[in-house]
Amino acid sequence: MGEPLEKNVILKDRPDEGPKAKVEVKTLDYIATHTNIPVSRVIRDWVDRDGRYFVLNARVRGQTLEEAWNSLSESQKVDVADQVCVDQSPCYPGLLFFELEPRGPFHSDQELWDALAVNLRQLPEQVLGNLKKRLPKCEPYVLTHCDLNLGNIMVRDGKVVGILYWEYAAFFPIWYDHASASFGFTDTDVERKRLLRERLRVHGEAHEDAKALWTDMCNLRQYPNLDEKGQETLEKLS
């Protein structure tokens, strides 16, 4: 006799069939077909008579990385970081635009810069021009999770067995998820991302130039009401 249904599946519902819901289902189907990234299989999705949207997924057995982190050995933590590094395969880009409004799709570095420049247009022309020069090469644009935090990575016996919640996924510059490892929200998240950055350097994928650009954009986002770091960045780029 099999296990109860609720142990094998997860049912998610949303008020309506919005864009984020469909992005996740399409992304999971794409990943399952074209990559080796461990994800939850979509069994089916549907809209009921009241317009509510439902998705039935196979359950991923394990713990979130947040739950398991303190029980992992140092070698297991390194192994998990390595798996996350190499599991990236060739929208809602909050890291770049500091908001979760949909953007893109982008088909070239120029298109991405033009979209970024809309939020930066209040900056002095020389500063804006120098920022543009610092934009790293973005190609290839790759499938990017955009919310790769401790609660979205499932592990079992020290191995990554699933990456969850792909509703913010989109094709972004190859350095996007790597640059997002520059900051953390909790002590555990900071430790995990520090280790991730170290392993990215080992794999030759640190993208420090992208991290530097993002830091400068963060420092200048409140222009002209800049704090000390913002003033330093403005002077550096003037």
UniProtKB/TrEMBL annotation:
Signal sequence residues: none
Aminoglycoside phosphotransferase domain residues: 9-200
CDD domains named among the record's database cross-references: APH_ChoK_like
InterPro entries assigned to the protein according to its UniProt record, in alphabetical order: AGP_Transferase, Aminoglycoside_PTrfase, Kinase-like_dom_sf
Protein name: Kinase-like domain-containing protein
Organism: Aspergillus lucknowensis
